[in-house]
Design a protein that fits this description.
Helix content of chain B: 10-25%
Number of domains of chain B: 1
Strand order of the largest sheet of chain B: 2-1-7-5-6
Chains: A alpha+beta (about 160), B alpha+beta (about 90), C alpha+beta (about 750)
CATH class of chain B: Alpha Beta
CATH superfamily of the largest domain in chain A: Beta-grasp domain
CATH topology of the largest domain in chain A: Ubiquitin-like (UB roll)
Largest sheet of chain A: 5 strands, mixed
Number of helices of chain B: 1
Number of strands of chain B: 7
CATH superfamily of chain B: Beta-grasp domain
CATH class of the largest domain in chain A: Alpha Beta
Shape of chain A: globular
Order of helices and strands of chain B: EEHEEEEE
Number of domains of chain A: 2
Oligomer: heterotrimer
Largest sheet of chain B: 5 strands, mixed
Distance between the termini of chain B: 37 Å
Structural class of chain A: alpha+beta
Largest interface: A-C, 58 and 58 residues
Shape of chain B: globular
CATH architecture of chain B: Roll
Structural class of chain B: alpha+beta
Number of helices of chain A: 5
Helix content of chain A: 25-40%
């Protein structure tokens, strides 16, 4: 299979890589670029572990071909923190025990960051609706919701 | 002397007796003593010189890791129970 | 025996520090099973049987071997026939290793849709998959049997002519061609039922469900030039993987190093080998490291789900609410190979009530589904569903409050268990009282088609061996290494126990999880045992450290070690308490007084604290669609001592939601040919964040004297009562008594319609 050269801005950095047309964006991120923060849980769009933000839209990277990312701007979980400074969501997930095994956490963080970018003051129902595409089997979701709420508060306070 | 409780399904072999006082310093000796009293018990608790598959041993209310080698006190009570799994 | 005197005040245990591994997890740096890469690594894929029951007549791998990019192909002929069959698997009794080997790759027969038949290693996973499709397998189809009753019927197809039955104390071997039998009893149920004023008998069926961990199974294996094997994997037990690999491949245990990566969920399903031996042999044959990933469909088709069941139970009660007799029969799927959860399933069915006359009977039944694996408290959820809904029925018939009824019959410390010995310290009564006093129980449900249900649940838990290493550095920081994989925060709960014992700050303890070459043996992270048993190993190692440090202080002050007083991280001269070193100060003097200090403890504690819980749920049911909305959920549990209360809450909430999924949606659908139809997470429907309300966890602490800080395991029992609590709430809401799981909208509608007709 002929590999194509793809160029994209990933977490603010210009990146170039080769990929086969049949490789998903998820596969490319993990196996070509070694950005292994984004996870595979189901490979068919049902668990959200592979969430990334592609040109401002939250997507399941398992359902996108790598070649489709050509010329795009991508944010993965690795791009949420600024150097050593954690994104408020990362901080609240840590402090609020919003994770147990931590596997679904990157997907939730990316998804929640997309939510808070769009809606800085979500209600609990809005949070739950937005995150319905992200499955967690460990936490029962309770502390995830609270972590997102706490992060929203921090971001709003910073904006003031 | 230690007391060995006979598990229910094996009581048909012991004529309904539910517990037996045995002279034994450890669980293996206790089982040997039971087997001497009730020869039909041979092979039901120990097989190939090991505790039979699916059986665990509790001494004085605790499931004991040393199994057949668990030492007994004069007032110890032994229960044979199914091995319980978990996850 | 070894009862500990638990300190009144604890300094670290009970607080909520941030877990040290959390930073890597929120930044995506943490390495889970598939995040590991080696240069030159190949990718392996498995060819799986599409048939539920068949004999393998022939396998032709030649086209696969010739495919460009393929480096190795294996079938069962590449694996030895096992010589030492049965190994001790701790609490689970013994395992037949030939069964384990055959489950990894089918020898003469395939026993379930998805059973591995061959494996290919190639330059990429895509190439390996293409090549695997070229392998030609000739099957002779056999009739599959897909549920326990069919498997126990007279004319049932027989899976194994010769299987090692569970024995389970029965005088005879196999009870039936596809099943072994377990019996336990207490008192005399014939007399017991004679004494009863009311007797009810009910039947129940529950479907097969999967643990549903979000990370699937992944292994990377490297066969070294000198025959030493290294395996990197996501597992609940690196030592179990090592030992099973050694026995299945007939290699010395010490020649295999298993390095546990972070684990993305297990719940009991990642306690043994699947693709591991395949990856090892592919690596041996190709001379390259090989990574194998089971995708979601493979994981659902071919890894241990939890048993579907058929249960029949009879309860006898007097009009004053005293339970006098109970009889429980449960048939639990074992899957393709024997050794399912029948023993804990029947042993926990009634254990939480003090009933004088009890008989329980269980069958471990072979069916053409993957070999079952534990799912939190294995076997207990279906049993609890049956018994707690019957209890609810009795409460209504006798017009007794569900909490009062249970209090009246509650198992207390010292009451006889059906296992025969007395129940150790347990907080069942305290939990029921906490339910009664809680605002949820006292609140008004409000609204039509709304109901409230209560269920009460029990689980054992285990001790088993764990090892912990502590090393003191000259800067006063302490390294803690244990062999217990961290599924959900045990690194921090173990570090907290070390800090408590040593009298230092938890931020000065740096925990890690060791591989099989670097740390002493530890049994898997299962059975709610890690904070308990590995915690005891940590505690004992800490005592050793303190003793060694006391010796150093004595040396410096030229006094006897007995004259050293150790007080909360400080070492003092009893005769002159002005002479005092803090832990850090003394650590700074280790180099000059003999060198660094380390200690190891291997503990196999027996003072296990059992788990007990009560769940209270309010729900609304839509009588037109059958959909259930959970409105309010409160879970009450005795943690003994919550080392890190947020994590204990997390265990309760997580297990509860799994139980809710089990109750309302999750089931395996097999067609007539025994093929699994719902192999994706769309159709194997687990709870989403929108399906669940906030879950309030009420943690009680009735200390377990078998642990220095009173800890009892907490991780498993939360999955036990949700199904029954929801079923009882459904009756309260709509007058329907459900007797099957899951209680899907379709089934609820059917019941509603049959009630109105």
């Amino acid at each position: 299979m002929n590999r194509q050269q793809i160029t994209a801005t990933i977490n603010g950095e210009h990146r170039e890589f080769l990929c086969e047309p049949r490789q998903s964006l998820l596969e490319v991120l993990r196996d070509e670029l070694f950005l292994t923060g984004t996870k595979e849980g189901c490979n068919d769009g049902n668990c959200g572990s592979c969430n990334v933000i592609l040109d401002g839209t939250l997507v399941n990277s398992c359902c996108i071909f790598g070649v489709e990312a050509n010329g795009s701007h991508l944010t993965t979980v690795e791009g949420l923190s600024k150097g050593n400074e954690l994104h408020p969501l990362q901080q609240t997930f840590l402090e609020g025990t919003g994770m147990q095994c931590g596997f679904c956490t990157p997907g939730f963080l990316v998804a929640a960051s997309a939510l808070l970018d769009e809606n800085p003051e979500p209600t609990e129902e809005e949070i739950r609706h937005w995150l319905v595409g992200n499955l967690c089997r460990c936490t029962g979701y309770d502390k995830i919701v609270k972590s997102v709420q706490d992060a929203a508060l921090i971001l709003r306070e910073r904006a003031l | 002397m230690p007391i060995a409780w006979i598990p229910h399904p094996m009581r048909e072999v012991t004529g309904g007796t539910e517990k037996v006082t045995v002279e034994a310093a450890n669980v293996r000796e206790a089982i040997r003593a039971l087997e001497e009293l009730y020869p039909s018990l041979v092979g039901l608790l120990i097989q190939n010189d090991q505790l039979r598959k699916g059986i665990a041993i509790a001494v004085d209310g605790r499931i004991v890791r040393r199994g057949l080698y668990e030492p007994l006190r004069s007032d110890s009570e032994i229960h044979f129970i199914p091995a319980l799994g978990a996850g | 025996m070894n009862d500990y005197v638990i300190p009144e005040k604890l300094r670290v245990v009970g607080t909520t520090p941030i877990r040290p591994d959390g930073h890597d997890k929120v930044t995506g740096r943490a390495k889970f099973g598939d995040d590991f890469h080696l240069p030159g690594m190949l990718h392996g894929k498995v060819l799986r049987s599409p048939h539920a029951h068949a004999r393998i007549k022939s396998i032709d791998t030649s086209h696969a071997s010739a495919f460009p990019g393929v480096h190795a192909v294996v079938t069962a002929t590449d694996f030895p026939r096992i010589t030492s069959n049965v190994i001790d698997a701790g609490e689970a009794g013994q395992i037949d290793m030939q069964d384990v080997a055959d489950n990894c790759i089918a020898r003469e027969k395939v026993f379930y849709d998805g059973h591995a038949v061959a494996a290919v290693a190639a330059d990429s996973a895509h190439i390996a998959e293409e090549a695997a499709h070229l392998i030609q397998v000739n099957y002779e189809l056999l009739e599959p049997v897909m549920d326990v009753r069919a498997a126990m019927a007279d004319d049932a197809p027989v899976l194994h002519d010769d299987f090692l039955p569970g024995a389970f104390l029965a005088p005879t071997e196999k009870a039936l061609p596809n099943a072994s039998k377990l019996e336990l009893a207490m008192g005399d149920i014939t007399n017991g039922f004679d004494e009863a004023d009311i007797v009810i008998e009910r039947e129940f069926t529950t479907e097969t469900v999967h643990q549903g961990y979000i990370e699937t199974h992944i292994v990377t294996a490297q066969w070294g030039a000198n025959g030493m094997v290294t395996v990197w994997t996501t597992t609940q037990g690196q030592f179990a993987i090592r030992d099973q690999l050694a026995l299945v491949l007939e290699i010395p245990m010490s020649a295999i190093t298993v390095i546990p990566l972070e684990i993305g969920g297990g719940f009991g399903g990642k306690d043994s080998i699947y693709i591991d031996p395949l990856a090892v042999v592919l690596s041996k044959q190709s001379g390259r490291p090989v990574k194998m990933v089971m995708n979601r469909a493979e994981t659902l088709r071919a890894t241990g789900p939890s048993s579907g069941t058929y249960i029949k139970a009879r309860l006898g009660v007097k009009t004053d609410g005293t339970l006098v007799a109970a009889e429980f029969h449960g048939a639990y799927e074992a899957g393709a190979y024997s050794g399912g959860p029948v023993a804990p399933g029947v042993s926990t069915a009634l254990t939480r009530y003090n009933i004088p006359n009890v008989k329980v009977e269980g069958y471990d039944v072979l069916v053409n589904k993957p070999k079952v694996k534990p799912y939190r408290a294995p076997g207990a959820t279906p049993s609890n569903f049956a018994v707690e809904t019957m209890i609810d029925e009795l409460c209504r018939e006798l017009k007794l409050d569900p909490v009062e009824f249970r209090l009246h019959n509650a198992l207390k410390t010292g009451d006889q268990l059906v296992l025969g010995f007395p129940c150790p310290e347990i907080g069942g009564v305290e939990i029921l009282k906490a339910v009664r006093n809680h605002a949820h129980y006292q609140s008004d449900i409000g609204g039509p088609n709304r109901g409230r249900g209560l269920a009460y649940g029990f689980w054992f838990g285990a001790g088993l061996p764990s090892s912990a290493d502590l090393m003191v550095n000259s800067d006063g920081t302490v390294q803690l290494c244990s062999g217990s994989p961290d599924m959900s925060g045990t690194r921090i709960t173990l570090a907290m126990q070390a800090a408590e014992a040593l009298g230092i700050d938890p931020s000065d303890v740096f925990p890690s999880v060791g591989d099989t070459a670097s740390v002493g043996y530890s049994f898997q992270t299962v059975a709610s045992r890690t904070t308990f048993a590995t915690g005891i190993a940590v505690y004992q190692a800490a005592q050793d450290i303190l003793a060694q440090m006391a010796e150093r202080a004595a040396l410096i002050w030229q006094i006897a070690t007995d004259d050293i007083l150790i007080d909360c991280g400080h070492f003092l001269n009893k005769a002159n308490t002005q002479q005092c070193f803090s832990f850090k100060e003394l650590a700074g003097k280790l180099d000059s007084t003999g060198g660094p200090i380390a200690a190891r403890a291997l503990a196999s504690p027996e003072g296990v604290g059992f788990q007990i819980t009560a769940h209270l749920v309010d729900l609304a049911v839509d009588t037109e669609t059958g959909k259930v909305d959970i409105l309010r959920y409160t879970a009450f549990q005795d943690a003994g001592k919550a080392v890190h209360p947020d994590f204990v809450e997390g265990q309760i909430q997580g297990g509860t939601v799994q139980g809710i999924g089990w109750a309302l949606n999750e089931e395996y659908f097999y067609d007539g040919a025994g093929q699994l139809k719902n192999t994706s997470l769309l159709d194997y429907r687990m709870p989403t964040i929108l399906d669940i309300p906030d879950i309030e966890a009420v943690i009680l602490e009735i200390p377990n004297p078998g642990h220095p800080y009173g800890v009892r395991g907490v991780g498993e029992v939360p999955i036990v009562p949700p199904a029954a609590a929801i079923a009882n709430a459904l009756y309260d809401a709509a007058g329907i008594r459900m007797d099957t799981l899951p209680m899907t909208p379709a089934k609820i509608l059917d019941k509603l319609n049959s009630v109105t007709n």
